[in-house]
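Annex B.
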Amino acid sequence: MAALGCARLRWVLRGAGRGLCPHGARAKATIPTALPSDKATEAPGAGPGIRRRQRSLKEIPRLGQLRFFFQLFVQGYALQLHQLQVLYKAKYGPMWMSYLGPQMHVNLASAPLLEQVMRQEGKYPVRNDMELWKEHRDLHDLTYGPFTTEGHHWYQLRQALNQRLLKPAEAALYTDAFNEVIDDFMIRLDQLRAESASGNQVSDTAQLFYYFALEAICYILFEKRIGCLQRSIPEDTVTFVRSIGLMFQNSLYATFLPKWTRPAPCCLSGSDTWMVGMPSFPSGRS
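Cytochrome P450, family 27, subfamily A, polypeptide 1: predicted structure tokens.
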């Protein structure tokens, strides 16, 4: 759910001291080496002819927790985070800090900065907090997959996955299938724009991308089109996609709300209530 024009990278700093990476991360993945000179966050007073000094972690602009909470739930930005990020970029520049409970996040709103960070990740990348997903799998006695596990176990699963899906030669085999789905997606996009009141707007882009993703995945796995991008979509498919959207929406609230709200079903952040509406699936890895 990140806007391309305002990409956000959230680093959960677990036990981090000075610098932006947890203990054990490669030393080169630090702010001074990650920022190009023309994109750097300069310290106050730096001007022409003066060598730029990179800001320390304490000098990076940051949001207060109460203000952030107010903007999310009172001003209604909880489900419009991309709009809030645009406002923050205009106010703070390409980098700022925010807090979600005990988690400190460094937000990047610059493609070059994001590229530098991604290129300098170590063998085991720093993952976002996956506490909700882990709790869900623990509750149902499910093992962790590449989406939820970390460290060496993640690396082993990723290596196994690479052999079948992520090698360039293997991925090239799916090119025709992807292109076919993409063509239908663009046709459907034009149809929805033409049918809108303004003639150039899609009212629910997220749901359209859910349909696109489901169609592409099913075509690759089952070698069969299921009609997600047609004008008339099967009712079961509509229910499934709506459930996915509701699950992501509820997980967002559950992430922002404190743990003491979780016993309350009305808060949609109980032990597993953020998964409300999701259909049952066979046990698998995620």
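Strands lie at 95-100, 103-108. The first strand starts at residue 95 and ends at 100. Further annotation is deferred to the next reporting cycle.
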